[in-house]
């Protein structure tokens, strides 16, 4: 085979391989978009603490449903108070009730309150920050319970399989746009019945210019 023919053949082979490999990559990228939900400061209450704040046997009333099945934002709110006696009012209670009360804040909230809340997965409260909550019927002084929730993705088994996830994976995502941002250390939570959604707090959302309808893209 002459040199020119050999070069031609190699070029054609390379172009064919690039084309073959290119199509799946574009498909994966299009398939890897994840809706973003912005999580504003809120609290999850135990039965015992709801009784203290709103009265024994009180039941939360629904304001609006949240994306994840069985969850809703309640009409009821509390005031949270930090150790410097600075407060933030109208902090929404989310349902359903939990075994242990959890207060989820942003870094900005922590600065306002004078609270040093660690970044934690939901439910990991041992050694977290103390906080006080005030309701219409009383108050609750938590020795621990205030956290800054880690970035995480909710999904069910079918989405996990499609995206190549398993529960507990730590992944990286990109937020496209004029303020394009890469978020690392994003925890995957695979739970039956979950709706695919990435949760970030308002500090992260503002940094990445996230608005309603923004999608994250999984970085492979």
Topology, please?
Layout: H1 3-31, E1 33-39, E2 42-46, H2 47-54, E3 62-65, E4 72-81, E5 87-98, E6 102-104, H3 107-113, E7 119-120, E8 129-134, E9 139-149, E10 152-155, H4 157-163, E11 170-175, E12 181-190, E13 197-201, H5 202-207, E14 215-218
Parallel strand pairs: 1-13, 2-5, 6-9, 7-9, 10-12
Antiparallel strand pairs: 1-14, 2-6, 3-4, 4-5, 4-8, 8-9, 10-13, 11-12, 11-14
Q: What's the overall geometry? A: globular
Strand order across the largest sheet: 1-13-10-12-11-14
Radius of gyration: 23 Å
Q: Approximately how much beta-strand content do the residues carry? A: 35-45%
What is the number of helical segments per DSSP (H or I, 4+ residues)?
A: 5
- Largest sheet data: 6 strands, mixed, barrel
Q: Which segments are poorly predicted (pLDDT under 50) over 5 or more consecutive residues?
A: 14-30
Helix percentage: 25-40%
Number of strands: 14
What does this structure look like?
- The structure is a single chain.
- This protein is an alpha/beta fold and 220 residues long.
- The protein has a domain at 40-149.
- The protein is 26% helix and 40% strand.
- The protein contains 5 helices and 14 strands.
- Strand 8 (129-134) and strand 9 (139-149) form a beta hairpin.
- It is globular and about 50 Å long.
- The chain starts with a helix and ends with a strand.
Summarize the structure.
The chain is of the alpha/beta class and 220 residues long. Helices cover 26% and strands 40% of the residues.
């Amino acid at each position: 085979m002459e040199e020119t023919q050999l070069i031609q053949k190699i070029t054609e082979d390379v172009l064919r391989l690039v084309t073959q490999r290119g199509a799946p990559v574009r498909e994966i990228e299009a398939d890897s978009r994840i809706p973003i939900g912005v999580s504003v400061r809120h609290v999850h209450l135990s039965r015992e603490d709801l009784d203290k704040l709103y009265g024994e046997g009180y039941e939360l009333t629904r304001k609006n449903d949240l994306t994840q099945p069985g969850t809703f934002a309640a009409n009821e709110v509390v005031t949270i108070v930090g150790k410097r006696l600075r407060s933030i009012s109208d902090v929404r209670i989310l349902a359903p009730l939990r075994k242990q009360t959890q207060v989820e804040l942003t870094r900005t909230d922590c600065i306002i309150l004078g609270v040093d809340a660690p970044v934690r997965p939901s439910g990991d409260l041992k050694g977290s920050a103390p906080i006080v909550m005030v309701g219409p019927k009383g108050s609750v002084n938590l020795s621990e319970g205030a956290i800054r929730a880690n970035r995480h993705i909710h999904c069910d088994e079918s989405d996990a399989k499609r995206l190549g996830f398993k529960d507990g994976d730590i992944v990286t995502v990109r937020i496209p746009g004029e303020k394009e941002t890469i978020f690392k250390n994003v925890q995957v939570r695979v739970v039956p019945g979950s709706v695919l959604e990435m949760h970030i707090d308002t500090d992260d959302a503002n940094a990445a210019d996230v608005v309603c309808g923004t999608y994250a893209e999984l970085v492979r």
